[in-house]
Structures are given as C-alpha cells and as structure tokens.
Amino acid sequence: MTEKLIFESSREGRRATAQAPLRQTVDLPDHLRRNTPPLLPQVSELQTVRHFTRLSQMNFSIDTQVYPLGSCTMKYNPRACNTLAMLPGFLARHPLSHVSMGQGFLQTMHELQDMLKEVTGMKGVSLTPMAGAQGEFAGVAMIKAYHDARGDSHRNEILVPDAAHGTNPATAVMCGCKVVEIPTDDQGDVDLDELRKAVGPNTAGIMLTNPSTLGVFERHIEEVRGIVHDAGGLLYYDGANLNAILGKVRPGDMGFDVIHMNLHKTFSTPHGGGGPGSGAVGVGERLLPYMPIPVVGKDGDTYRWLDEKDIPGTIGRLSAFMGNAGVLLRAYIYMRMLGRDGMSRVSEYATLNANYVMVRLRDAGFDLAFPRRRASHEFIVSLKRQSRDLGVSAMDFAKSLLDYGFHAPTTYFPLLVPECLLIEPTETEAKEDLDGFVEAMIAILDESARDPEKVKGAPYTTPVRRLDDVKAARQLDLVFNPASVDA
Amino acid sequence: MAFIPHTDADVRDMLQAIGVDSIDQLFDEIPQALRVDGLKGVPEAVGEMEITRIMHKRAARDGEPLTFIGAGAYEHHIPAAVWEIATRGEFYSAYTPYQAEASQGTLQLIYEFQTMMASLTGLDVSNASMYDGASALGEAALMAVRANRKSRSGKILMPRTLHPLYRKVAKAVAGNQGLEFIEVDYDHANGTLDLKALEAYADEDLTALVIPQPNFLGRFEDVDALTDWAHARDAQVIAVVNPTSLALIKPPGEWGEKGADIACGEGQPLGVPMSSGGPFFGFMTCRQSWVRQMPGRIVGRTTDLDGRTGYTLTLQAREQHIRRSKATSNICTNQGLMVTGATIYMSLLGAEGLAGVATACMNNTARVVEVMSSVDGVEVAFAGGQFHEAVLKLDCPVAPVLERLAAEDIAGGLDLSAEYPELGNALLVCATETKSEDDIVRFGKAMADAVAAVAGEKR
Amino acid sequence: MSNVPGDLKYSKDHEWIRVEEDGTCTIGVTDHAQAALGDLVFVELPEVGSTLAEGDACAVVESVKAASDVYSPLTGEVTAVNDGLTDAPELVNTDAYGEGWIYRMSLDSDGELEELMSAEEYLALLEDEA
User: Fold this and answer.
1) Do A470 and C89 touch (CB under 8 A)?
2) Contacts of A474 in chain C (CB under 8 A)
3) B248 in contact with A at a CB cutoff of 8 Å?
4) Do B257 and B225 sit in the same domain of this protein?
5) Which of A15, A109, A176, A188 could make a disulfide contact with A216, Cβ separation 3.0–4.6 Å?
6) Mean of pLDDT values over A270-277
7) CA dist., res. A106 & res. B95, Å (int)
8) pLDDT of residue A485
C-alpha cells in the first residue's frame, strides 16, 4: 500500500473553494510582492480528506495496536480528554487576552499545578515547558541560576549516569555545563564509589531517572542524595519513568530538588506522531525563586499570571505564551478522571503488566538484562545470545513483531545492554493482549531457529519493507521537486 | 477502575505466574521509609459525565469573545476537516516515527509538510517543526553560531520591532551558551528598523541579524536592504516570518542579493487554534548548505528492499539520541500533531486560498485603521501599509480601556505601553479574515465609548 | 581481520598517518574504524589553514547510526582536505587508506611522530580491544 504525494494530485485551477475567502485586491508595493506562488497543492476537499485518511491508515498507533515502546509510556489516551480540551471556549481564548476572559482556563491550570505538586511532593510547579527535553532544560537552568546566585558560578559539572537518555547530556551542554558520566554497576544501580570520586567543588548537580532507563528502581537513592547534597550539588529527577512509581513514592520525598514530568507519558496526553509533549517542572524550596514563567497564581478569588514582577529571579520564558496549554488541559482532565486512588493504580497495574510479561518471556527462554531484579513498569530483554547463535538481531525481532501486529519495543536503548529490547506494556493493556505479545515473541524465536533469513527480511506486511537509510542520508531528498516528475 | 482492563481473575493468574502474593510485593525494592501513603491533595475520581459538566462550565465561562488581538497568535477560520482528520487515532496516538515501516503515514505527511514550508519561505530544506515560533528563534540563533564559521563573537542583532516575548525566549533558550543578543532600536516615527541604527554595529564581528517580516508592529521592513547589509558584514540573516503573509509577500529566500540563510516563525496561523497559546508549532527552514546544522527531526525520501518509495527519519546523527552531549540541540519531539493539522490546512487552502486569507486580513486591518481614525481620542501611529496588525495611540491609559472592552466581550488588543513606552498609550490591534464589517463597526463603537469613559474619569 | 598496511603509522583513536616525501602527513581513519562505523553518509572536513593541536577534534565521520569525531593525532596546520568526500563519503569505506584520506597537515615538530604506533603495535591494540 502506497499513497501518491498530495502534490501529484494537484491540477492547475482546482480549489477547495469553501475553505477560504476569495482573493481580494490589496495595496502592496511591488518590491514586497511574491512573484511565484508557493508549492501548495491544488486539490479538492475530498481529495484532501481521502489522502490524509489513507496516510493515517499507514500508521501503527495505540488506538490500533499494542505499542510496548519502552520509556515512552504508550498508554490509552482517553477520548474525553481530547473532546473536552477542544471545547470552543478553550480553543477561542487568545493567550494575551484579559485575565477576566480566562478565569475558567486559569483555574484549571492552577488546580493542575496543585495536583502535580501533590503527586510529586514538590513545592512549586511551572507548566510552561513544551516537552520533556525543555523541562530538562528548565531544570538544569534553574540549578545553574541557584549556584550563580550564591556566587558559585564555577559549579558547572552535571553528573549523568551512562544509562541516561541522550537528552540529559545534550541538555547540560545547552545550559552551558559540562557532562561527567557516572557508570552503572552490574545490577543496574549507580556505582556509588564512582559517584563519590566524581563529585567535587565544581559539581552543579546530578540528573537521575528513577526507575532508571534500565527498568529498575535505584535502590541507593538515599545514598546518592547524601553524596550529591554533601558535595553542594542539587538533584534533578528526570520524570520519564514517573508512571512506574505514581502514588507509591514521590521524587520530593526522595530528596530531589527539581523534576520534570512528561505529561504525554504519565498523564496520557497524546504523542501525536512525535509531539506535542509537555514537560512541566516541579521544584523544591531552594529553586522556587527561579521557576520559568508564567506560573498561575491566585489573588482572593481571581486567578492571574505570575511573571517577572512576581518571580524576579526566574530563568525566563521558554515559550512565547503558556507552553502547550491544550495539552495541559488534557492532562488535567485525565488526572481528575483517575482521582486520588486511580493515581496509584496506574503504577500498580503498569508494574504488574511489566513483571508478568518479563516472567513469561524469561520462561520462554529469553535472556533478561537484570534477571535478579524486579521490573519497574518496563524491563530489558537482551538478544545477544540469539544474535550470536542465530544471526538474528534485536532489530530483526522488532521488525518481525510488526508483521504480528505489534508495535516494536524500543531497540538499542539503553546503549549499555547489547541487542536489547526495552519493553513497556503500560497499565491499559489487557492480559490477553499481553499474552498475544508473548506468543508473537515465542513464534519469532522459533522462526529464527528454523528460518533466520525470513526473520532478517521482516517486515513483509507493512506498507513498505525495510528502508534504505544509507541512501536516505547520502542522497538527501527532503522536499518534493515537481520538475523531477515532469522530467 | 478507569482505563484499567484487569479482572480479579486476571490479577490472580498474573500474580501466580510472577510468583508473588500481591501487587504491593512488586514494589519491594523501594525503601519502605520513602513510600507515600495516598495522595490526599488529589481530589476523588470523577466519571466522564461529571468531568464533562465541569469542563463545559469552565469553557463557557471563558466564552468566545470578539478577538482583535494578534501579537503572535491569530484567529483564523479552520476548516472542519483539519481537526476531524488530525485527531484520528492513527495520527493522534502514534509516536515519533522511529519504526519507519509502521509510520509511513506520519513520515510521508512530514515530507509533504517540509516541501510546503520550504516553498513558502523560498528556502531549500525544512525540519519537521520545533516547539513554537519563539523557541524556534532561539534554536535558529544557536544554529547560526554553528553555521557561521566566519564569526566568532556569537553576537546576534535583534531589532526592537521583533516580538518582545520572542526576544525574551531567545535569550532564555540560547543565552546560556555564550550568545550575546543585542537589541537595535527602530525609527519611532514609522515603526521599522532604521539602517542608521544598525550602523553603530557596522564594524563589529556579527554572527547574525534577525529580521521580522511583517514586524511586531504590523509594518513591513526593508528586507532587501537589511539582508544585504548583514551579508556584506559576513553576518547570517535569520528571518522571522508569518506564514500566512508569505502567500503574498516576498519569501525570505528571495530577500536581497542572496536571500536569508534561515527562516523561522510561528506555524499556528496555519490551522492551529489559539487555545490559550498552545500547542502551536515552530517552523524552521534553511539553505541546503546548513542542513547538518539544523536542529530537530528531518524526514527523507528513499526506497525499500523491493525498490518501493518510502520515507524515513534521516540525518539522525545530529540528534541527541545519537550524538548526546554534542547534539545540535536537546530537542527530542517535534509538534507532530500540529504539523498534521497544518499540512491538511495548507492542502485545503492551496496557494490561492492562503492568498485569499492574507488579502482579507490586510484589508480588514486597513478597515479597522480607517474606523479607528475617526474615533475621538484615537490616532493611528504609523502612516502607510501594514499586514494584519496596526498600532493605535490613545489619549488615555490603555489598561482601563481594555478592561471596559473586555466587559463588552471584546478582546480589544495588546497594551504596548510597558514594552514600548516611547509610543505613549499604544495599543496593538489585529483583524484577520474572520472579522466582518459588523464586527469592525462594533469594535469601533465600543472603543469610542471606552476611550470617552476612561478619558472622562481622568478629568 | 582488518587490513593494516605496514608502511603507515597509527594512533590509538584508529587514525592512520602517512608521512609524505615533502614532510607533510596525510591522515585518515583505519579500515577497522570504517568497518565499525558502517556505511558513512557524511564527512565533515577541517578547514584548510586551521591550526590543530594533538587531540583536537577536527573532523566528523557520520554513519546512519553514529557520528564520531576524528581527533588530530599531530600538531600543525591543515594544508589540504579531501573534498572528494563531500560527494562520496563512501570512499572512506571502500578505500580507507587511499581515496578515503581525510586531510593533510604540516607539522610543528617531527617529535610527535615517534609517539605514534607502528602497524605491529596497532594490530596488537586491535587484538586487545577485541
């Protein structure tokens, strides 16, 4: 199944006339005018609807397939969250309109801040970061601002465990810091001896994901806190895996000074084919003066924006307005529908599902990266043995799963574990769907022994088969050129 | 249990398979002392019926005012098909297209989007989008530092005719990496950047000049002269543009002798609702020679094992998940869903439809200017053309006027007096194609009443 | 087993160095390095005329799945770069020691040459790493 580019359906003079006012004459000097029209297709409304509906059908998605993509928390996105966030009163609100015209929205944001404070155990929340990576940026920028304000500008080293997401070191650099990598021990915990050696007078802080990207809870978290705080550094919590501990243990109680949350993971806002995300940050007492603006405040019964005047030490604005406001509405609606008890059920059933799939795969002969550990909400299978014995790689398994109707787990991350699949079923999958996934994995394992070439050629049932990435990068073709078709 | 499918029997079987007695036992690696006992600060759960009622009430409270504010977020008509299709589960609930074979829909759509944005801006290549227009400018400044090997200074000139919030965001996003943002004043009489104001920096090592078109005050900059001035000094040109306007006006790739090097801006006008400021999306395009310095996702066209055409993420070695601390940016996601909406919007409108929107915006704003110039106590700040925004000067403070207009359910513009004190009691207003003659007349009348009332109070 | 020509010198970062008759040095990445990187899709070259200290990151070799810095094994000035790699980065894969050379430099002093490894020493390093 392939679909032509929409430009290839374009015909001179065709228009979806219902959709825009007719072109009027306008007073514009010649030197400002555009001479050739932009390459936008000339198609009818039906052609457009059909084209994009067909494209949608070429995607895997949560709504159509099990999507056990580790570290991404691909859980069900309740439809009510979308429907209610798109009520006309919310969509029509201009971000700079008078606060009297936005009390419904602002109240909702204020309550969301309060709920997020409660589930994370932090003292303040700013909702503006537009993605996890921007939340990370806000967090490290606040740590830097804190040290600068104390005359400790030399503190510019950020400690990052080697298992961390690539965004962590990239963020530290964007904040003008240096990265110091900390190794992980053979059980997946931070190597405390190496940590003690790494801290010093230049330590700004540590960025930690807990449970880590290895799918296990950092058991020495209290020691880590002690070592870093004693050295004068602050602790940053990467909330990528908050889903695993929701309602069980709070980053604030673990001693973290700042955290970011991925609302598109833990609070089920849509991933949208790669965004929008939403990376709200929470801070402890020490970083309250540096929060990114705007934050929603309350004077008596009136909600209003807090800006530079209210938070003079702020690290500033990260978006023109208020971050991904519509995503925040969806998170709020989701949290209200879960309620207090629903929060802890998220982590309970996510953990149950992960441990169940882990045990079943182990029993079926797969090697676990950390067989002596509990899974958090995700776990790692290593196919190093199969790769050596059968010549079938983790990527081959991933592609083969697509033929069985399952989205692939995360492959080749974390980088520490060879030939790995990082599997996160999430709490919204039913037992029979998990069983289906396990059975598909077993079937691929059998096939790998019988006919490895077949597995290496997968997928066969998707709209295209494996793509030539090398050609894509060497012969860059990033925009359509109509001349290439005419020729 | 909301959204959790497990029956009691499922739980029993699963626990047995794992070999534990209770779900709680699965958390036994977390130190007991750290465990939290309930979340009292979170309210009890409500069902879909109750939350529907709550949200309807709040949305209704905010209402649907008659909006004459622009300033970076614009009310345009959005065809019904745009969000009907973009919120299909297959787009809405998919993730970043790492598994290309299972994501051809999203990938092909992004390739089409890249084509449209590159063409709209007159440049060679586009990425798959950034968070929003303001943060895209911050990233563009960092990109200019990487791309401009002739400059060592990291100095970026930003005219005061650039959106004040964009200037703040650029500093917050890029300021930690040694960039220096220098604000350049404008001609207070006509609202555009004056080449004379630039001359103060003529002999400095400059990394880039930012040129907004149309600028924040709604005016058209002399982009050809500004572009050539910057290039003559080996500075790069970063264009900040409104995509709707590009259906009519000269695209950045054609500015001056050589064209702008990088274009970026806010994509929201292309079919994304105002929604209190987000989610929007930033766009970024550039010349082919800088593509490896561009941050964010990029999709390329290639072939599969059987020789069929397909699409995949490419140039990933620039990105954080491979390059880690040496990546071009820490950016991970784009604003995929908003790009989906925008691509559908641009397809429905076509070049002619988008030009229709742009001309209607210009003419409606001209009509607002005409109506307001006959209101007592209101004058128009700058003579001459503007795109879809204009500055009005009042003979009384702006804030109480806006408050009175709000009471009439009119979002009457943006108060400029704090950011542009030299303009006095200045108000930035905007009229898009969504405003009818009746709307504009009503706005004029309400403005006359509000100004008269506020001026009367003062006396 | 990797191809390690006997007439070249090597660095621990898997670069090869050939001393030319005029005393300049030609530098590239070894056959082992290109095999580990996989199909190259781009090579970022240093600028002619730039000065490099030993250990400076001076070029980037990029495959689909990785981008690695090339560290200058010597101190001196870049006198030539292999522009052919701009359009054909795959030359590094197909002819690492020939058409796939990356840059040429003049040395501040010959002393550093003695720090480099011989082919035998480099082969031993590869065995240690395996």
Assistant:
1) no
2) 41-42, 89-90
3) yes
4) yes
5) A188
6) 94
7) 29
8) 65
> Is B326 in contact with C62 (Cβ distance < 8 A)?
no
Same domain, B186 and B255: yes
Q: Which of B323, B325, B328 to probe the C interface (max C CBs under 10 A)?
A: B323
CB B201 within 8 A of CB B182: yes
The sign of the torsion formed by the CA atoms of A17, A18, A23, A24 equals: positive
Nearest-angstrom CA–CA distance, A61 and A67: 7
User: Domain spanning A80-338 has what CATH number?
Assistant: 3.40.640.10
Residues spanned by the domain of B410: 66-74+351-458
Kindly state whether C39 is in contact with chain B, defined as any CB-CB distance less than 8 angstroms.
no
- Which of these three, B313, B344, B375, is where a domain ends? B344
Give the CATH number, domain containing residue B177: 3.40.640.10
* C-alpha to C-alpha distance for B300 and B316, rounded to whole angstroms: 11
pLDDT under 50 in chain B at which residues? Answer: none
User: Are B283 and B196 found together in one domain?
Assistant: yes
| Chain length of chain B | 459
The residue with tokens 């699949």 is A421
- How far is it, in rounded angstroms, from Cα B3 to Cα A77? 9
For tokens 């770069």, name the residue.
Answer: C81
State the pTM of this model.
0.96
Shortest Cα distance, chain B CAs vs residue A316, angstroms? 6
pLDDT of residue B459: 62
Q: Are B149 and C47 in contact (CB < 8 Å)?
A: yes
- Does residue B58 belong to any structural domain of this protein? no
If asked whether residues B14 and B93 sit together in one domain, one would say: no
Q: Which helix (H) or strand (E) holds A132?
A: helix A132-149
Do residue B375 and residue B309 come from a single domain?
A: no
Instruction: State the Cα–Cα distance between residues C65 and B318, nearest whole angstrom.
Output: 10
Tell me how far apart the alpha carbons of residues A283 and A303 are, in angstroms, rounded to a whole number.
21
Q: Cβ of C65 under 8 Å from any chain B Cβ?
A: yes
CA nearest C90 in A: which residue?
A: A474
pLDDT reported for residue B458: 67
> For residue B142, is it within any domain?
yes
Could you say which of 3.90.550.10, 3.90.1150.10, 3.30.565.10, 1.20.1530.20 is the CATH number of the domain covering A344-471? 3.90.1150.10
SS3 at position B392: strand
Task: Give chain B's domain count.
Answer: 3
Closest-CA distance, C115 to chain A, in angstroms, reads 28
Quick check: B317 and C44 CB within 8 A?
Answer: no
pLDDT range class, residue C65, cuts 50, 70, 90: confident
The residue that leads in pLDDT, A167 or A350, is A350
Does residue B60 form part of some domain?
no
Q: Is B317 on the interface with C (CB under 8 A)?
A: yes
- B30: which chain A residues are within 8 Å (Cβ-Cβ)? 217, 245, 248-249
Does the C9-112 domain belong in CATH 2.40.30.10? no
Residue B61 host element (H or E): helix B48-62
* B326 and B441 fall within a common domain: no
Cα separations in angstroms, C103 against B149, B448, C12, C95? 19, 72, 18, 15
Interval C22-39 mean pLDDT: 93
pLDDT of residue A482: 87
Asked if residue B331 and residue B419 are part of one domain, the reply reads no
Task: Check A103 against B310: CB less than 8 A apart.
Answer: no
Domain map (residue ranges) of chain A: 6-56, 80-338, 344-471
Two tokens, residue B191: 């609202």
Among C43, C64, C91, the strongest candidate for a mutation testing the A interface, having the largest count of A CBs within 10 A, is C64
pLDDT at B316: 85
Q: Which class for A417: exposed (0-12), middle (13-18), buried (19 or more C-beta within 10 A)?
A: buried
Distance from CA of C65 to the nearest CA of B (A): 6
Per-residue pLDDT tens digits for A97-117: 999 999 999 999 999 999 999
Mean pLDDT of A472-485: 90
